[in-house]
Amino acid sequence: MSDLIESFYDDLAPCYHLIFADWNRSIAWQASILAPILERATGKTSPHVLDCACGIGTQALGLAQRGHRVAASDVSQASVERARKEAHLRQLDIRFYVADMTGLGPIGESNFDAVLAADNALPHLLSDDELHRALTAIAAKLTDNGVLLATLRDYDSLIVSRPAMQPPAFHPHEAGYRIVHQVWHWEGNGYTLHHYLTIPTAHGWTVRHFVSCYRALLRAELNEALLASGFADIHWLDPAETSFYQPIVLARKR
Known about the structure:
Rossmann fold
């Protein structure tokens, strides 16, 4: 995974929660949808889960609060440190590691019932080789018949419309409201994302700007990569079915 992506999340870690209208509410809401899916897919009420792109812990914290046994990793050391702090504040037992998705060797655990790669993490893998290495590494961490659950944007639609921006959202803030929006610069089958946080202060407004890159990972491309990396029984769940904000894909280790 590129240094640009690592630095993107390192820089964003202290204020990542400001992207959400209410981060704690989003933690609980996401877990209320993802946890039952994982439980049905694994056949366990408290599956052993690795969140391999945990960021500051949005999904890992919620799953642990619901009784899942959770380990979590991320390429961004700053994000992992933030997530570890948030877990401690909530008295949650989560093991944290710094690890790139393409090489999960630093994670001293295996035989997970499920691996989670949420919030559009897989499209950070810009080449087919990177994607294959990540999916192979994920498969190696799973128990026999274990499942991968990933969420990502609907690129089959986005590659056609090629939106130039994500409209601004206005979230409550101590001094009124903050503004969150994105600008997308498309090139070929991917785009550079410019993420802006505009925050009110006593002396005006402060604007934070973060930059990262994504590929427009199509369903057929991901399906092919999953099959080539030791997965089968691929199943897509759309937002209309789950009420989640992104499509969800489930795949089972062969």
